Amino acid sequence: MNTDSNRVLACIDGSALTEAVCDYAAWIAQRVDAPLKLLHTIDHHPETAPTSDLSGNIGLDSRDHLLEEIISLEQQRSKLRLQQGKLLLQTARERVMRAGIAEPLTNQRHGSLVESLIELEDSMRVLVIGLRGKVHENQPDKIGAKLESIIRSLHKPILVVNQAFKAPQRIMLAYDGSKAAEKAVDMVATSPLYKGMVCHLVYVSKDENGKGQLLDLVANKLRQAGDIEVIAKKLTGKPDQVLFEYQETHDLDMTVMGAFSHTRLHDLLLGSFTTRMLLNSKKPLLLLR
């Protein structure tokens, strides 16, 4: 087994996708022979605390009493969230152990999830996280509030889970010639995660003048890695729509692609390809930057 500096890290929060996150993380850990760590964070959102406005127009004694009650309630709420988090981690640990993970680690941290993941990045091999947390789990037109920041902040592979677990057998590698896409090619070629799979290498251009020759070189690179069946396709049209259609037509289990290759300003003005893929894909996406 690899050292603890090479962990699969699974973020859990009790949302509807938590079980799927655990299952995919356990699958990856077993395929790549890496330790698995389950992470739960408690973000107390101090900016939403109600202590600032509730006592402005009442007497001093009453105000002091009210503030004491507010502080007591906040302490009780924090204690409850801590206990709920510990129970969540325990349940998740039992689930991944049933899936075959012998010694999963658990970690509960206070503060921002994004900051916690940045601190843990050096010990991370791959991150597994749900497409939506509890806040947006019933809003199919949105992704998780922190997901884009997490993807932009990290430079490790991130598997975004959006469905119940199904062991991937056929993947789509969306290739566009970018640095992130080249990184994805190298990962698929070298990682034991993809051995024995069928890889559909798909390049989409807006017209017939594309990188067909380069696509052949990339396909040969993947084939030379061994134990990967490669199907290379050059298609035309709007990339996200073409990729969705191809994924559904060929019943592919996971998409591997580069993420957020443009700046936030570019994406704000023209829209983000990565966000559209996250919102509309019916299968998990493994993203790299």
Spatial strand arrangement across the major sheet: 3-2-1-4-5-10-9-6-7-8
CATH superfamily of the largest domain: HUPs
Contiguous uncertain segments of 5+ residues: 46-58, 265-271
Largest β-sheet summary: 10 strands, mixed
CATH T-level fold name of the largest domain: Rossmann fold
Describe the SSE topology:
Elements: E1 7-11, H1 18-32, E2 36-42, H2 60-98, E3 105-110, H3 113-120, E4 124-130, H4 147-153, E5 158-161, E6 170-175, H5 179-190, E7 198-205, H6 212-224, E8 229-236, H7 239-249, E9 254-258, H8 264-270, H9 273-280, E10 285-288
Parallel strand pairs: 1-2, 1-4, 2-3, 4-5, 6-7, 6-9, 7-8, 9-10
Antiparallel strand pairs: 5-10
Task: Describe the protein.
With 289 residues, this protein is α/β, with parallel strands linked by helices. It has 2 domains: 4-45 and 81-160, Rossmann fold (3-Layer(aba) Sandwich); 168-288, Rossmann fold. Helix content is 42%, strand content 21%. The protein is built from 9 helices and 10 strands. It has helices at 18-32, 60-98, 113-120, 147-153, 179-190, 212-224, 239-249, 264-270, 273-280; strands at residues 7-11, 36-42, 105-110, 124-130, 158-161, 170-175, 198-205, 229-236, 254-258, 285-288. The protein has a 10-stranded mixed beta sheet with strand order 3-2-1-4-5-10-9-6-7-8, with helices on both faces. Helix 1 (18-32) crosses helix 2 and helix 5 runs parallel beside helix 6. The two termini are 26 Å apart. The model is unreliable at 46-58 and 265-271 (pLDDT under 50).
Q: Summary?
A:
The protein is an alpha/beta fold and 289 residues long.
